[in-house]
Design goal:
Mean pLDDT: 78
Shape: rod-shaped
Distance between the termini: 103 Å
Structural class: alpha+beta
Number of strands: 4
Number of helices: 3
């Protein structure tokens, strides 16, 4: 009878009890009963993770391009005879005295 109705007898309390289910088994039971919703939920998390990774990689590429461009600009200004002032205006070195 215990297996059919899923109840157990507690001899200390002298009564029948319904055993509590483990949380892991509840989650597996939910996934088993709701296959479409489970598939949608899992694919949402997977594609969201991929999306965040791609955005992060793209931002790193833009950052590297910006750093490289600024290094090249600084090097070209040094060779062309210009210096940078505190106001970020470029002017020829020959006029500074």
């Amino acid at each position: 009878m215990e297996n059919i109705f899923n109840v157990k007898y507690n001899s200390k309390l002298d009564r029948l009890e319904i055993p509590s289910e483990n949380g892991k088994f509840k989650l597996l039971k939910f996934f088993k009963n709701h296959k479409f919703f489970s598939t949608v939920l899992i694919s949402f998390f997977i594609f969201s993770g991929i999306n965040f990774y791609l955005i992060f990689s793209f931002m790193k590429m833009l950052e590297n391009i910006w750093i490289t461009k600024n290094k090249l600009l600084d090097n070209s200004l040094e060779y062309s005879g210009f210096q940078e002032s505190n106001t970020s205006n470029y002017y020829p070195v020959s006029k500074i005295k």
